[in-house]
Specification:
about 250 residues; 12 helices
Amino acid sequence: MGVLEQFREKMDSGIPCIGPSITLKDPFIAEALGPESDFLWIDTEHSPMSIESVTGHLLAARACNKPALVRVPGSAIESIKPVLDSGVDGIIVPQVTGVDEVRRVVADCRYPPVGKRGFGVRRGMDYGRTSLKDYLEASVTELFVAVMVEHANAVSEIDEILEVPGLDSVVIGTMDLSSSLGHLGDRSHPSIVSAIQKVIDAARKKNIYVGMGLAWEPELALHWLEKGVQWVQFGCDYEYLVQGAAKLFNSVR
């Protein structure tokens, strides 16, 4: 069973999936965190990470048999195409503003007839060892395409977004959503809570996976998992270092 099939099967079975955000370049980070994780979220939106660094993390994720999902900087094809051709398991596109942008994103990620992705893959075909026919058949399910709902207009158009063919998941970015709705940082504000639940309910109704991006916030993660979120990016590498060191050192002090 492939790593994405395992990931989907867990969510379909009601098992919450949790993974770290990887922001540091060294692939040892992915190798160290992989065995504890259901997936690895490799962040290139807020981290100075090159495609070479991303590829190192992909190799480490493969060694751990865990799906590697890369959050790209934005929806421009220049951000998406190199990551796709690196052989990534999934792509996460942040800050989508509405259904038209989601249609463009999915089209750039899917081969015809669903989309218009250009063909230039190497690693994804095991450097030519996989036949074109087998690769194209597998590409339908072996790429996880997700967009982040963190803009007020994306919430307004959520029903249309969920109808876009080839979209696997929406991911709620709680902090930027609170900003877009005029309450930066106040994620307990009724309008923020209502918007988040609206997205969750709509996605679950359409059988589209729903994820969430969070910091080191176990109570908030538990809350939204109980409300229907299926997969959560929960904290990041440097956060684990800081929090772990602080806890250990303070326990001795």
